[in-house]
């Protein structure tokens, strides 16, 4: 039991900040991202004893994270909250100016949750269409259409003079 707990603690310590960055891109709020990651790791811990292959652990954890985000978005727990112009200084650096990043993050927050999830998994996590489909429990065609619609929505939300 202690070996299993130690293995989980090591995994959490090494991967929680990466998952937090993914969660932030999904929801646009550092506090909510923290909650999503915490919930995802609690769910992962509950299944930890059943996980045979730890080589696919990142994909499994990401899948839990995305499903948690989508479930909460559907239920409307945070439906009325909107991200503000204030951002946490602890964010990881991204190429481009701060203004460009804020415009893009604001636009990403206005994209529908499933489209946002597809965009984050495909372009932030650099997952294949097939892996994204597994994470979202849908077909590859659905991933392609959600990604295309999400990119189209971003194009309409971001002024062309910004980039």
Automatic annotation (TrEMBL):
Residues 103-154 form the RNA polymerase sigma factor 70 region 4 type domain. Keywords: DNA-binding, Sigma factor, Transcription, Transcription regulation. Residues 19-75 form the RNA polymerase sigma-70 region domain. Pfam families: Sigma70_r2 (PF04542), Sigma70_r4_2 (PF08281). It comes from Actinophytocola gossypii. This is SigE family RNA polymerase sigma factor. It comes from the Bacteria. Belongs to the sigma-70 factor family. ECF subfamily. PANTHER family: ECF RNA POLYMERASE SIGMA FACTOR SIGM, RNA POLYMERASE ECF-TYPE SIGMA FACTO. The keyword Phosphoprotein does not apply. InterPro entries: RNA_pol_sigma-70-like, RNA_pol_sigma-70_dom, RNA_pol_sigma-E_actinobac, RNA_pol_sigma70_r2, RNA_pol_sigma70_r4_t2, RNA_pol_sigma_r2, RNA_pol_sigma_r3/r4-like, WH-like_DNA-bd_sf. The keyword Transcription applies.
């Amino acid at each position: 039991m202690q070996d299993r707990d130690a293995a989980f603690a090591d995994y959490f310590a090494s991967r929680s900040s990466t998952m937090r960055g993914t969660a932030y891109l999904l929801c646009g709020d550092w506090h909510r991202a923290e909650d999503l990651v915490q919930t995802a790791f609690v769910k992962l811990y509950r299944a930890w004893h059943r996980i045979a292959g730890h080589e696919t652990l990142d994909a499994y954890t990401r899948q839990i994270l995305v499903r948690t985000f989508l479930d909460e978005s559907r239920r409307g727990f945070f439906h009325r909250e909107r991200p503000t112009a204030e951002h946490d200084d602890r964010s990881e650096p991204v190429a481009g100016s701060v203004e460009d990043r804020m415009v893009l993050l604001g636009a990403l927050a206005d994209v529908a949750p499933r489209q946002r999830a597809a965009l984050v998994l495909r372009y932030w996590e650099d997952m294949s269409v097939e892996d994204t489909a597994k994470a979202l429990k849908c077909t590859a065609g659905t991933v392609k259409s959600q990604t295309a619609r999400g990119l189209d929505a971003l194009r309409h939300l971001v002024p062309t003079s910004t980039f």
